Amino acid sequence: GEDVEQSLFLSVREGDSSVINCTYTDSSSTYLYWYKQEPGAGLQLLTYIFSNMDMKQDQRLTVLLNKKDKHLSLRIADTQTGDSAIYFCAEKSIRNYGQNFVFGPGTRLSVLP
Amino acid sequence: DAGVIQSPRHEVTEMGQEVTLRCKPISGHDYLFWYRQTMMRGLELLIYFNNNVPIDDSGMPEDRFSAKMPNASFSTLKIQPSEPRDSAVYFCASTPMVAGGPNEQFFGPGTRLTVL
To answer: Which residue of A has its CA nearest to B97?
Structure first.
């Protein structure tokens, strides 16, 4: 079945790197996503990676995809207090008419000064 | 575009009352999704529409929940009668349909529902 798993909490010190991990089950997923949710707000797309890529870098963000292990990670370099939020991993499954986004439970990132 | 608009932002009601949540998707987006977020269950997909037609409502918890999309710019999620366990944040999201594209979902700010 479709299931996306993430650890629920992560604490880092300001200036350190954060690594948020995710595992998914649908090997046919075409895109994998990272969304960010700040307090009191909706989810906002942070970045995505196409399934035929291994890595994508966007400023302080690095996404690594291991298709064999169905493992996705998000690395945030030089983590700032403004990065404190909940980060959701998601996959776009081609099942269910191809528009079923399956979200993980979210990882709450706390950045300590 | 103002993004996905949801109303109300906060709703407090008493058990047994009817609740209607509203959503205006981004103009030109073909798909509209309703999600529910709770601490216990995380983010759950309730239903989604394509071109105003409900495609998958398997996430709707029970018959007390219903959703409609009478036109491309408006959707409602109704709970009747409401129960305390329906308390959650309800999100609406929309996405354009671009073949082969990432089809990012754009989320509204959510409606925080509290049923007393």
So the answer is: A99
Contacts of A50 in chain B (CB under 8 A): 102
Nearest to A89 by CA among A75, A72, A76: A72
Q: In chain B, what percentage of residues exceed pLDDT 70? A: 97
**CA-based nearest distance B87→chain A, Å:** 15
- What is the end-to-end Cα distance of chain B in Å, rounded? 35
CA proximity to B88, closest of B24, B21, B26, B32: B21
In terms of C-beta density within 10 A (0-12 exposed, 13-18 middle, 19 or more buried), how is residue A113 classed?
exposed
At residue B42 the predicted structure's pLDDT band, cuts being 50, 70 and 90, is: confident
B55 to chain A, minimum CA–CA distance in Å?
Answer: 8
d(CA B90, CA B11): 11
pLDDT at B41 over 90: no
Residue A41 with chain B: CB contacts under 8 Å: 109-110
pLDDT at B2: 81
